[in-house]
From TrEMBL, chain A:
Keywords assigned by UniProt, alphabetized: Signal
Protein name: Peptidase M16
One protein family per Pfam: Peptidase_M16
Domain Peptidase M16 N-terminal residues, every copy: 41-180
Signal peptide extent: 1-21
Keyword flag Signal: yes
Family matches, as PANTHER family: METALLOPROTEASE (PTHR11851), PROCESSING PROTEASE (PTHR11851:SF224)
Residues spanning the membrane: none
From TrEMBL, chain B:
Peptidase M16 C-terminal domain mapped to chain residues: 190-373
UniProt keyword Endoplasmic reticulum present: no
Name this polypeptide is given: Peptidase M16
Ranges for region Disordered: 231-250
Signal peptide (UniProt feature, chain positions): 1-19
Top-rank lineage group of the source organism: Bacteria
Length: 462, 446
């Protein structure tokens, strides 16, 4: 039997004086006959369905002696399954006009699929083979292993990756977040087919799966699809890793690398997603460096001083760690000035807080921008599954803007004083920056962490 | 398949949505402004894009990067707004905005709640005519652009190599210069150069307005009349004629050396015909050719032969983008496995190409690409912003709305013989550039 819990969400609260779009989608919770749940937004406008699947765990499930196993395994999911070797599998997919993509980060393994209505059953059969019965053919293992090794070699020459690896290694030590997601050249070379089978068994389980579906599909059809697609996966997997504190203290590290422009990552401890001050800090981050052209850091570094093409900060709540992180790139002879300005801004917002005008503008932007994200089946499916991974209720899509609007000036400035800590700000600089006296000089780390949680420093094009 | 390589293969764009599957309305104001409205009422959102038919290939010689420089400065002060006020106002209305420059166009866009469209139009129309250029803004922004070039190009060996290759591909056409500009010319740009581009090209008769989303065409047209209608046309808008390529008579071979290169690879470009108004079949055949040769890591000719059968490459691909005002390029790339030299990889590439020229594509290959292109049209309808870009780019690159609408059907009708003939015409060594990218020339010779 298919149980359908229907919840209609149509946001009506409008703030006086501002206009904004409203989230008007209807999310249904669908439970399959076999007991797998998914969130669905039915929309029959275009004859296809977007499916977003997330398995919690990701590369955090790597065993310490087989680093990179989950990543390599993920790369092999599309390299042959069931009766089909890699090329047969891909030809079958292309003949259906379906698209599947597989990706993995430190918290989740993601599967994104688009399927035409006209041949959805066949596309689901094919995707099921990839998830449930990947072949891990030795020849495919060697091919993808070579691709991973090539990526690792490129990462070792990429300033941004070098900075990222050093930052996470120092911040999280032996916790999975401190380890290289893709593994090391040595660990990847040593991975066996048995390691990959074990990684598959651990990383794709029913207890850790979440599904968002949007498009030309009914709840009944989705229910059947879920059992077909995921019903034969193992029920349970290994225990997921636990919480870890952000372990970096204030300071500047420099990794010498011959490049005309230095790259810096900087960060300090952050806030848990469940923290009652999270929304205040989220708005605070937007004002400080949230990626828009109006942020204080963009104004001070780019618009006033021309020190960089882009700077942004992000308040990152990973599954098991919380931190503030930012990134900037600046010519070697100007990086010291960029860092000085960032520190000054960090101190200024902690000491003085923000103005009512800044708070108003940020709240208007953030509440106005949110509904704009809900455009397109693929986008909405991604939002639905992300909410499930984070543990948010369906009602969040209508309540979220109220949480933003409820933050007062007094509250945000208290949070700024309590949580923003210029003394704790830690910089990792890769390049040949001039005039960073007293900086600790490090050897480049051997391996690089993928940029799973890194904010992109660059606004799209301007 | 795992891949993260900075190759010079342009991404294959998905084809436009099926003819008139999306509701498209067009109109031209008396002052020459073209208006395209694309309706999509699924979400209460609108995107306004204003495209100018001026890009880096329209720049005066010696002033490379000036079109992009102007794009940056368009966010500074106008007669009616302070520097930064444009973006701040968009943000204060819960929207986002940005801009981009290419060889053939410069485009500005905002994405907001649908009822904010009038304000967006008012501001966009304002900066078409009322920009205030100050030396101080120009100096600060030059530093930003230098950092942008540092970030995008100087820090990226793949981008530096691509720049050299493009310069060698075009003997005479300005497509040979980078869109962002050569560093020494960026450093020399000033108010006069920027103003010249602004005064000449930022005019309604040189622009295309694309509005896409939850809007009614009549309302958009009325708003366009109100805000853009009063701006006079530029009477001295130059005809868009760039220096064209002479006959190319010699293959070019480049080796780019950069110690930061960890993964040697080779790339080859051929001068290729683009989509022309009313004449898109050759480009459609080349679109198939790129897909069949290198569109899939698994089932394409290069993928099968070099990655699977001969097992000498980590990756092999092909790329072609038919939207271009003048001659475009068709590119091939091979990333050899460790232990395989670039010369050996290039020889293998040439063998595979020669074999393909003999046989042409199979019906099975044709059918697979036909299916892929048809599916991509359906998926493309999911992004109204993507459709807006498609129309804006096409119209600023010499195509008409009809050409965009016809394209999917033309693609569906391409035959195997046309693809084979297109390949035979294309692969003329004299019109090619081959680039080897290596960490060290000495190592590469061993």
């Amino acid at each position: 039997m298919i149980r359908i819990l229907s919840l209609t969400l149509a946001l009506c609260a409008t703030v006086a004086g501002t206009a904004r779009a409203e989230v008007a989608i209807e999310i249904e919770e669908v439970t399959s006959p076999g007991g797998i749940t998914a969130w669905l937004v039915e929309d029959h406008t275009i004859p296809f369905t977007a499916l977003e699947i997330r398995f919690e765990g990701g590369t955090s499930l790597d065993e310490p002696d087989s680093l990179g196993a989950v990543n390599l395994m993920t790369g092999l999911l599309e390299e042959g399954a069931g009766e089909m070797e890699a090329r047969e599998f891909q030809a079958a997919r292309e003949d259906l006009g379906a698209s599947f993509s597989f990706d993995v980060g430190s918290d989740t393994l993601s599967v994104s699929a688009r399927m035409l209505t006209e041949n959805r059953a066949a596309a689901v059969d094919l995707l099921r083979e990839a998830l449930v019965a990947p072949r891990f053919d030795p020849v495919a293992i060697e091919r993808v292993r070579g691709q991973v090794q090539s990526i690792l070699a490129q990462d070792a020459q990429n300033p941004r990756r070098l900075a990222s690896r050093a930052f996470y290694e120092a911040a999280f030590g032996d916790h999975p977040y401190g380890r290289p997601d893709n593994g090391t050249p040595e660990s990847v070379a040593a991975l066996t087919r048995a390691d990959l089978l074990a990684a598959h068994e651990a990383a794709l389980t029913r207890e850790n799966v979440h599904v968002g579906a949007v498009g030309d599909i009914t709840p009944e059809e989705l229910g059947a699809l879920l059992d077909e697609l995921l019903g034969d996966l193992p029920e349970e997997g290994p225990e997921l890793p636990g919480h870890v504190e952000f372990g970096l203290a204030g300071g500047v590290e420099v990794i010498d690398y011959p490049t005309p422009q230095s790259v810096a990552l900087f960060g300090q401890p952050g806030l848990e997603r469940e923290d009652e001050d999270f929304f205040a800090a989220y708005i605070l981050n937007h004002i400080l460096g949230g990626g828009g052209f109006e942020s204080r850091l963009m104004t001070e570094l780019r618009e006033k001083r021309g020190l960089t093409y882009g700077i942004s900060t992000d308040l990152v709540p990973l599954e098991n760690a919380e931190f503030w992180i930012g990134s900037v790139a600046s010519a070697n002879d100007r990086m010291a000035t960029a860092i000085e300005v960032i520190r000054d801004e960090w101190a200024r917002i902690a000491e003085e807080g923000v103005t009512q005008d800044e708070l108003d503008a940020a709240q208007t932007y953030l509440t106005g921008e949110y509904p704009l994200r809900f455009d397109g089946n693929g986008q909405i499916a991604g939002i639905l599954v992300g909410m499930q991974v984070t543990g948010l209720p369906q009602s969040y899509v209508t309540e979220r803007n109220e949480f933003i609007e409820a933050v007062t000036l007094e509250e945000i400035n208290r949070v700024a004083a309590e949580r923003v800590d210029p003394e704790a700000l830690h910089f990792v600089v890769v390049g040949r920056p001039e005039g960073l006296d007293g900086a600790q000089v490090l050897q480049a780390p051997r391996v690089i962490l993928p940029e799973v949680v890194l904010p992109e420093a660059v606004p799209a094009a301007r | 398949m795992l891949r993260r390589l900075a190759l010079s293969v342009p991404l294959m764009l998905a084809t436009p949505a099926l003819a008139m599957t999306e509701a498209v309305t067009t109109y031209t104001l008396d002052n020459g402004l073209d208006v395209v409205v694309i309706e999509d009422h699924r979400a209460p959102v609108v995107t306004q894009m204003l495209w100018y038919r001026v890009g880096s290939a329209d720049e005066p010689q010696g002033a490379s990067g000036v079109a992009h420089f102007l794009e940056h400065l368009m966010f500074k002060a106008t007669e009616n707004m302070e520097a930064g006020e444009f973006s701040a106002t968009v943000a204060a209305n819960g929207g986002s905005d940005n801009a981009f420059t290419s060889t053939d166009y410069t485009a500005y866009y905002q994405r907001v709640a649908a009822d904010r469209l009038p304000l967006m139009m008012q501001m966009e129309a304002d900066r078409m005519n009322n920009l205030r250029l100050t030396d101080e803004d120009i100096e600060t922004e030059r530093q930003v652009i230098v950092e942008e070039r540092n970030q995008r190009v100087e820090s990226n060996p793949g981008a530096l190599a691509r720049e050299q290759m493009t310069a060698a591909q075009y003997l005479n056409h300005p497509y040979g210069a980078p869109v962002i500009g050569w560093m020494h010319e960026i450093e020399g740009l000033g108010r006069d150069e920027v103003r010249e581009v602004y005064e000449t090209y930022y005019s309604p008769n040189d622009a295309i307005l694309v509005v896409a989303g939850d809007v009614e065409p009549e309302e958009v047209l009325a708003l366009a009349e109100e805000h853009y209608g009063p701006i006079p046309a530029e009477p001295e808008l130059p005809e868009r004629i760039r220096p064209q390529e002479p006959p190319q008579r010699a293959p070019r071979h480049l080796t780019y050396e950069d110690a930061r290169v960890s993964q040697p690879y080779l790339s080859r470009g051929y001068l290729a015909p683009e989509r022309d108004a009313g004449d898109q079949r050759a480009a459609a055949a080349l679109t198939y050719l790129a897909e069949i040769l290198g569109g899939s890591s698994f089932t394409s000719v290069l993928g099968e032969e070099l990655v699977f059968e001969r097992d000498i490459a980590l990756h092999a691909g092909a790329g072609y983008e038919g939207k271009s005002l003048d001659d475009t390029t068709f590119s091939l790339s091979v990333v050899p496995k460790p232990g395989v030299t670039l010369d050996a990889a290039e020889a293998a590439l040439d063998e595979v190409l020669a074999g393909f020229l003999d046989t042409g594509p199979s019906e099975e290959q044709m059918k697979r690409i036909r299916t892929k292109l048809r599916a991509s049209e359906i998926y493309a309808r999911d992004s109204v912003e993507g459709l807006a870009r498609r129309y804006g780019a096409a119209l600023s690159q010499g195509l008409t709305v009809e050409d965009v609408a016809d394209w999917p059907e033309i693609l569906q009708s391409v035959t195997a013989d046309e693809v084979r003939d297109a390949a035979r015409a294309l692969f003329d060594p004299d019109r090619s550039v081959t680039l080897h990218v290596v960490p060290s020339r000495e190592e590469a010779l061993k």
